[in-house]
Amino acid sequence: MSKLCIDLPPIAPDYSxxxxxxxxxxxxxxxxxxxxxxGNYTGFDEPRWLGSKSAVYCSGxxxxxxxxxxxxKYIDGTLEAAKNxxxxxxxxxxxxxxxxxxxxxxxxxxxxxMASGIPxxxxxxxxxxxxxxxxxxxxxxxxxxxxKNPTVKTEDRPSDRPQKVNVLGLLxxxxxxxxxxxxxxxxxxxxxxxINARFAMGLxxxxxxxxxxxxxxxxxxxxxxxAAQFMEKxxxxxxxxGAPIGDGEIFTKKLNGTYKLRGIQKKExxxxxxxxxxRANSIREEMENQSDVxxxxxxxxxxxxxxxxxxxxxLPSELxxxxxxxxxxxxxxxxxxxxxxxxxxxxxTMIELPHVALSGRLYxxxxxxxxxxxxxxLIQNATSIASQETQRKGALS
Length: 397
Description:
By secondary structure, this protein is α/β, with parallel strands linked by helices. It has helices at residues 14-22, 36-45, 63-68, 71-85, 96-101, 105-116, 131-146, 172-175, 178-190, 205-209, 225-235, 249-256, 277-288, 318-325, 356-359, 373-396, and strands spanning 28-31, 55-58, 90-93, 120-123, 164-170, 194-200, 216-219, 239-241, 270-274, 295-299, 313-314, 330-335, 349-352. The strands form three sheets. The chain has a five-stranded parallel β-sheet, covered by helices on one side. Strands 2-1-3-4 form a four-stranded parallel β-sheet, sandwiched between helices. A four-stranded parallel β-sheet has the order 6-5-7-8, with helices on both faces. Helix 1 packs across helix 2 and helix 7 (131-146) runs parallel beside helix 11. The longest helix has 24 residues, at 373-396. The chain is globular. 45% of the residues are buried.
């Protein structure tokens, strides 16, 4: 009961993140469920679904098949679809029922590949984890399967060529719209870098094959962190975490290696940002470049200690979010509009920052462009309100 949601929608699960990571690869994605999980993904968690040609199917799992374990029925159906679609790959995604009855997703994938010759994968998504875990598992598994060793050693590469980067974390659940992904990639190219691979909006098998040729990995949302750490260990590719926000000044400093964390003294009535952790961190860094207001990051999707600062918080339930935003510790809350439902204080300003992972398609028309004036105004507005509240509090004391 600890994760019971009364007012807030459920958060996008791991199978939605996995399907989103596979969306552009030209493969067949089979969600092994009775149709509810597939409907969650196509109806709520994938902004690109309407009008797309991505082959995402529901297996139509039925009660008798659960009892009898009729996996061959679903393998045969997938193979029949593959004859007509000529996919680049085939992926089986799990859901709560396959988890409970112990369906062997890897075994189904192995049989499918043996019968078809098409690269096939089984992903043990369960619906018990969040979207970033599903996407992360897909990224790592695809790199292990398709990545090729670089043909030219790092020290032998021409010094005058642009540095190649892999962009890790271009997930539609976080981006909200394709323009955000395009803006980020264009910003990186304007900074003088060549994009080697895009995980996952715009991803292709060819890009995965050449990931090891990159000089640097840019982790712009948390779902890309495990892949970056895997490539650092296997190929020696360094990585940095952060996303360009507003004018992108802090992100540019990170690219150039000149960014230094400011020591902000904690003050009363600061700002709380509840969003995807790396994006929230990046917004905080831009704010700290303009103000001395204390800023904390909260995550409803699990708080990764590798990305967290002192004072950041894991908010694993609706109840924990409700308590935190109504604690009186903050003058400004930056979060998905759905959070407004549980904010009960009149002395707190709520600034909307939609996130598909929580609100699905509800606020796509309000989704900001992360680069440009909209985010710059949001940052200025939030820091101004928090600064005024701090000054007022100081005057009263």
